[in-house]
Amino acid sequence: MYWVYILKCRDGSLYTGITPDIERRLTQHQAGTGAKYTRGRGPVRLLYEESYPDRSSASKRENQIHRWSREKKLQLIKGA
User: Fold this and answer.
1) Complete domains list, the chain, with CATH
2) How many helices (H) does the chain have, and how many strands (E)?
């Protein structure tokens, strides 16, 4: 099982990522040891998550969301 997730950083920016262990990954982001983008932008807040059966499908969804505008990402979050 893999997760696609969207975080809101302290500066208001959104970060999209994938992980097989969402709790561990959130802990890493909070500690500043997660993605380079989120270092120094913490604390972060989980706004959205979706589960996928494998890394391939999660990665495809992550790439799709990365191409979206901020407004479209916020619409996805609202609809969750």
Assistant:
1) 2-79 (3.40.1440.10)
2) 3, 3
